[in-house]
Design a protein that fits this description.
about 325 residues; Butyryl-CoA Dehydrogenase, subunit A, domain 3; 2 domains; four-stranded mixed sheet; four-stranded antiparallel sheet; about 15% strand; globular; flavoprotein
Length: about 325
Amino acid sequence: MTTTDFAELHDDLRAVAADVLSRGRTVDWATLVAAGWVGLEVPEKLGGSGASFAEVAVICEELGRAAASTSYLGGAVLAVGVLNTLADSGVRDPLLAGIADGTIRAAAALGEFTVSADGRLTGRADFVPDAAGADRLLVPATDAGGADVVVVAEGLTITAQPLLDETRSVAAVTAGGIEVDGAAVLRADGITAVRNRAALAVACDSLGLAEAMLAATVDYAKKRTQFGRAIGSFQAVKHACADMQVKNSVARALIREAINAAEADADAPVAMAKSYACSAAVDVVGKALQLHGGIGYTWESGIHVYLKRAAFNRSLFGSPAAHRQRLAQRYRTSKAK
């Protein structure tokens, strides 16, 4: 199945999301749960919708379009993604069910962690979304034998990290050799896929905010007059808006390809989507700021909110340079073969 196979469903989901997010920029956990977004990828037998990442991507895009402040990225996208790499168990299933019904808010610390042979967890993750206030911390790690595991950890140190982007909450999560219960160390299959979905979710957010800024700029260019004409009639403004549209169209095409390839855990499409979409979003918002003239630099315009979010997205879960380096390494490896 591809994203186009469910176009009507996605349109309905997008319309509902737009309605919910129009009520205010800050959306609490209870509202996310009531809307059914938190449990989209939770299996139906555990109270979720049994949907795929393609549906989650629609929500991520709409959250970016509204520059909404929520705990959806950490509490749903990443937490459920991590839990879905685990086999059914008496630990995993209650966590997924609790997330779906809103009684548990989890967060996933994607960093560099190891579990020693004597059961001690060591490592650190920076810029962990929505870690503060989470009921459970899920920590992907490597055990003494080199296998991927997920630790349902307690006793970790969580330190809030300040951001210019006020729509997000992130923290540093550290483990200094704390002892973990063996029953809380679960064998995982697909941690690389979780890191890819984290990058792709941020790319979807960037696409949404870039499209919102293009729409706002076009609307402003139709209304703002200069020399007795709408500024949208000037060739330079037309060209600038066209460039913004091209960037957004390319970003959407790359993201669509990455979503379709997500089930196969394809690194290259995700790297291309993340590097391009997040860079393009910064460019598009910057151009929107310029085309709004003096009013664009005021607090009331709200463009600064999108610019700071776009700038943070660009670095979150891998900078464009880091993802391009991944692509180059894959190309060199394939050529060597």
